[in-house]
Amino acid sequence: xxxxxxxxxxxxxxxxxxGALMCQVKLDLDPGASMSSVMxxxxxxxxxxxxxxxxxxxxxxxxxxxxxx
Length: 69
Description:
The chain has one domain (7-59): CATH 2.40.50.100. The N and C termini lie far apart (40 Å). The radius of gyration is 13 Å and the shape is globular. By secondary structure, the protein is mainly β. Strands 3-2-1-4 form a four-stranded antiparallel beta sheet. Helices cover 10% and strands 49% of the residues. It has one helix at 41-47; strands spanning 7-18, 22-29, 33-40, 54-59.
């Protein structure tokens, strides 16, 4: 499948937090970074995602905000 987004990161699902309608999927990325994605429960089930799965994160964003702490 071809994607318009060019930022593609591979990683492993480390945690899935389910809510009523949405879930947060946490990933450990190669090499040594992490990120999370929020999606509907329906999308998670369509992908059959579970902890330990290897996935590709396709990132397409129009804004990246940096905050100095």
